[in-house]
């Protein structure tokens, strides 16, 4: 339902030193109509041009400080409110590749009253301006 709003393409940026980026970041929104505790976010898969990036390279920050996806599993006191942007940080040598590429995000959410996971995805053609 809210899939097309997951990735904020205008927020894409490289991280680390300008002359030698160590990764990239972008803002994302929750694809579920209510906020969720971070421990209920089972997957945040990031890919570039269909190539999945390693789970260990992805971190998440809703404003309380970055967490690995493993750390999120026990972040019971933290929530991602509906409509609020969160930063997805990805360790990726060289930063986001030059030129136009497809950036994709898949969220798998555990919702207490659903007998199946809520899976939301978005993909956008993006590029970084020099």
Automatic annotation (TrEMBL):
Family: Belongs to the C-glycoside deglycosidase beta subunit family.
Source species of the chain: Novosphingobium lindaniclasticum LE124
Keywords: Carbohydrate metabolism, Lyase
Protein name: C-deglycosylation enzyme beta subunit
Pfam families linked: CGDB
Residue span, C-glycoside deglycosidase beta subunit domain: 2-113
InterPro entries in alphabetical order: CGDB (IPR045959)
GO molecular function: lyase activity
